[in-house]
């Protein structure tokens, strides 16, 4: 039998949402430790939702650790990839639940990256009008962002994450050991969402990232633990004030308006979500500068960090018309008017429309044929 690593929770970050509050556990060796799961609601059945890539790596470990909590534990492995974040794939989760006669106490475990997490959350929100679920994020991106805060969704060919629900998990468990098997490109994609928190909320984090980007790229556990903890703290602070994105929460979409256009315009799965966000942040910074909000030095500073994280800083040349068309299908758009998250001043963001001519100029400047 393989040795079970000694668990070490380095951090617990609370998400304060009244009766929907829950903790985020961050550390090493958490997945295989039955104690990690002691607070999950008791239920005779559980369904681990994962994908064909993550299942052989971690599903058995999780299943073994859960045997004290649940009598029956099923596993469903979805196809892997953003292009599978669809109704058809979502239905595979409902098939597994119904084929196993899952009752309304059944606990769903989302074991994987943001795609698995978003789909499992949506399935949990809608199966029997709501069953409990737990997020077990195994990508950096999911640990620092998507597993926290209760946004769940699938894509539509006409727009990303356009169909979904707000539905909070019971617990989030970020086992840093899972990041050891993550492909380098995916690690970089996760760093985009970590970098995001700097310009919008925390200039100390930005400076820390500049000083520690090599350690993060080398997967130093202490550096990753700090990046995950600080990211979750900032997200917890934002979500605690604005769970359903009536206002403030939209700042977490810094880089996402341009980024979603890149993802949809190139075809889901061509650019990773984090890559599109990285490049989208550079474009949003150029927009902020064009609006007279930040200076060139700040744009260059953040762009340099995005580049060092192994992310693209130049967008694909879809054409300004196509970008504008795609950006109109954005949850922040109102009455056809596109809203952008801009940096007002270093460490602070706001959401506002921008003149078409300026947006077109930014797109022309930031994109190349490709
Ligand atoms: P992903 O879920 O596609 O995972 C990336 C890749 O890594 C996949 O191929 C996956 O199988 C693989 N993988 C996962 N864990 C692994 C591991 N430990 N070892 C080896 N391979 C592993 O992508 P992602 O970047 O995690 O998430 C992106 C998705 O998250 C997008 O759909 C995006 O819209 C969504 N998202 C949601 C929120 C939210 O608030 N709900 C926030 C940000 C992003
Ligand atoms: N990732 C953006 C949000 O959770 O609001």
Structure description:
- The structure is a single chain.
- This protein has helices at residues 55-65, 87-99, 114-126, 140-146, 184-201, 203-217, 221-241, 256-266, 273-290, 296-308, 320-328, 356-366; strands spanning 8-15, 22-28, 45-51, 72-78, 107-112, 133-137, 151-156, 159-166, 171-175, 315-316, 340-345, 348-352, 367-368.
- By secondary structure, it is α/β, with parallel strands linked by helices.
- It has two domains: 8-181, Rossmann fold; 194-368, Dehydroquinate synthase-like, alpha domain.
- A hairpin with a 2-residue loop joins strand 7 (151-156) and strand 8.
- Helix 8 crosses helix 11.
- The longest helix has 21 residues, at 221-241.
- 49% of the residues are buried.
- The structure holds nicotinamide-adenine-dinucleotide and glycine.
């Amino acid at each position: 039998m393989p040795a079970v690593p000694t668990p070490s929770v380095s951090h617990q970050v609370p998400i304060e949402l009244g009766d929907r509050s829950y903790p985020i556990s961050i550390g090493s060796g958490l997945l295989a430790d039955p104690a990690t799961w002691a607070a999950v609601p008791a239920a005779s059945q559980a369904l681990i939702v994962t994908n064909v890539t993550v299942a052989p790596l971690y599903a058995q470990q999780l299943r073994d650790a859960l045997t004290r909590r649940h009598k029956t534990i099923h596993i469903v492995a979805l196809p892997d990839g953003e292009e599978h974040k669809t109704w058809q794939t979502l239905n595979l989760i409902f098939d597994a639940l119904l084929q196993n006669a899952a009752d309304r106490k059944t606990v769903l475990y989302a074991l994987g990256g943001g795609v698995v997490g978003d789909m499992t959350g949506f399935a949990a929100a809608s199966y029997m009008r709501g069953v409990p679920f737990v997020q077990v994020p195994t990508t950096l991106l999911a640990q620092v962002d998507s597993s926290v805060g209760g946004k769940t969704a699938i894509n539509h060919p006409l727009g990303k994450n356009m169909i979904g629900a707000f539905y909070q998990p019971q617990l989030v468990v970020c086992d840093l050991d899972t990041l050891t098997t993550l492909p380098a490109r995916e690690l970089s994609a996760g760093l985009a969402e970590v970098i995001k928190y700097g310009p919008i909320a925390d200039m100390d984090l930005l400076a820390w990232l500049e000083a520690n980007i090599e350690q993060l790229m080398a997967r130093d556990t202490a550096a990753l633990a700090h990046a995950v903890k600080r990211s979750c703290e900032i997200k917890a602070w934002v979500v605690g004030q604005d769970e359903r994105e009536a206002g403030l929460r939209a700042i977490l979409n810094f880089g996402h308006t341009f980024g979603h256009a890149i993802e949809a315009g190139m075809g889901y799965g061509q650019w990773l979500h984090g890559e599109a966000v990285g490049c989208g942040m550079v474009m949003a910074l150029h927009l902020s500068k064009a609006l007279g909000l930040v200076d060139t030095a700040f744009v260059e500073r953040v762009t340099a960090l995005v580049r060092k994280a192994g992310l693209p800083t130049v967008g694909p040349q879809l054409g300004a018309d196509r970008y504008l068309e795609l950006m109109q299908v954005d949850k922040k758009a109102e009455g056809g008017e596109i809203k952008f998250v801009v940096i007002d001043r270093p460490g602070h963001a706001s959401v506002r429309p921008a003149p078409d001519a300026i947006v077109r100029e930014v797109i022309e400047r930031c994109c190349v044929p490709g």
